[in-house]
Amino acid sequence: MEWLAVFLGGGLGSLVRFSMSRLMTSKAFNFSWATPVANLLSCIVLGALMAFLTKSGSNTRLFWMVGFCGGFSTFSTFTAETYQYIQESQWYLALANIFGSVLICLLGLIIGMRLVP
Can you give the pTM of this predicted structure? Predict the structure, then answer.
């Protein structure tokens, strides 16, 4: 039943990501903020779960850490958006996306781990 936990968690994470993207979509921005925000939030949740669920049951950990966080985070979208910036010769946005995403995700993981005593 481990696969079911990952499947259901991934579906929930994907729905949350899709909903957040819909809410944050705006033509007023030159940068796609939904992806780094989703990745940051996912890393915060993952960090908290790493600190909290490492000793709990396998299915709970698989549902939240592998399924939900895997479905909520968006590495493929991050890569596609970076590629689009490169194609449009917007190098500053491509580099900001690459370095900014890595930094905020590391910080998010650390913050999440520190939220749990």
Answer: 0.80
